[in-house]
Each structure stands twice: as C-alpha cells, then as structure tokens.
Amino acid sequence: MKQMRILVADDDPVIRRLLEKRLSENGYDVTVVSDGMEAARLVDRKRFDVVITDLVMPGDIGGIELLQVVKDRDIATEVIVITAYSSIDTAVDAMKKGAVDYLEKPINFEELFLRLDKIAQVRALIRNAGDLREAMDVTEASAAQTIQQLEITAGDLQLRLDQLRRILGRDDRPPEARIAEALGLLGREQG
Q1: Residue 186's domain spans which residues?
Q2: Of 64, 76, 114, 126, which one has the greatest count of Cβ atoms within 10 A?
Q3: Would you tell me how many other CB atoms lie within 10 Å of the CB of residue 149?
Q4: How far apart are CA 22 and CA 121, in angstroms?
Q5: pLDDT of 190
C-alpha cells in the first residue's frame, strides 16, 4: 500500500532532506526538488500520487500555484501543503483549491504518515470500486445475454405449444393421428 510516488517541493534543504529520508525509510518512492518551477516541470513529465509542497517558495511558483498546476495536470494527484506561516485563511484557500491536507512546520511525521495512509486507503477503495464496477459490467452483460437467450427459448417453446394446441385441437382428424403428429413434432424439435 505504501508504494506511492511522492514529490516534495521545499526551498529549505534541511526540510527536503528530512522529508526524503523519513518518507524513503517508510517505503515511499520520493523525489525532492527545491522550488515550484522544478516541481511543475517534473509533474509535466512524471506521474506522482502525492505532492508535498511548501506554501512559500522563491520564484514565480509557490505552493498554491504549484497546487493549481498539479490539479490541472492530474486531478487524482493529492497535494499536501506545508508551511511555517500558518493561518486559517491560507489553509482554507489551499483546501478550496484542491489540497487534500495542510500541515504546519515543524512537521509532525506521525501526522503526515497517518494522512499518507489515509490517501493510500482511499486510492485502494477507489481501485476496488473500479474493479467491482468492471465485474458488475461483465456480470450485467452476461445476464443480459442469458436473458436474451431465455427469451428466445421461451418464444420457441411458446411457438411449439401453439403448434401442439393446433394439432391436438383439430376435430377433422382422429385422436390417434393427432397424437402421432404431435409426437412427431416433438421428436423433430428435440432432435
């Protein structure tokens, strides 16, 4: 479940190294970059399950801008915004723009790992739901084919019953002749 690919974008080399080390030790495939521009270029070339980005980074692409770039590229990529300058307004803004979560520095790794586990669980549920939908589609197609075949068989049986009624209901022939003809019809249909 922890084989998620994570991109970390933070201009602080200590935070980058710490995140890379802790995430790698916990089984995640981690790529680290020092700014939003580099992260945006990587997101264009490679698919990530999660992007962890600092809110404030030098250059034209900060955390909120990177969040928007990531969501424009792949809505399924989850973004966690981290910052030392927390405020309710920035957290609300990040969440409105599609961030799955918002963490304050210094990073509480237990909290981060809990959030990453939840993301992995949701992804597994979505995958399972997709598998179930696919299985349901196959089952529905098979059921529709079976129903169609049953309708054809029921139609054929109704036709045979109508023919048998017509044969057995004729008054212009002796009963033995009608029975023989009806048995002949049944023998032909079964053979």
Answers
A1: 134-190
A2: 64
A3: 10
A4: 20
A5: 55
When divided into structural domains, the chain yields a total of: 2
Q: What is the pTM of this model?
A: 0.68
Written as one letter, the residue type at 161 is L
Q: How far is CA 92 from CA 20, 128, 162, in A?
A: 27, 31, 73
Distances in whole angstroms, Cα of residue 70 to Cα of each of 93, 99, 124: 16, 10, 21
Identify which of 133, 120, 187 has the alpha carbon closest to the alpha carbon of residue 160: 187
- Return d(Cα 152, Cα 53) in angstroms, integer: 61
Q: Which uninterrupted H or E stretch holds 164?
A: helix 109-168
From the list 57, 86, 78, the residue with the least C-alpha distance to 7 is: 78
Which of 88, 107, 126 marks a domain boundary?
A: 107
Per-residue tokens: 72? 């424009």
Structure confidence at residue 23 as a pLDDT band (50, 70, 90): very high
Q: How many helices (H) and strands (E) does the chain have?
A: 6, 5
Residues 100 and 185 in one domain: no
Are 161 and 73 part of one and the same domain? no
Closest to 105 measured CA to CA, from 19, 2, 5: 19
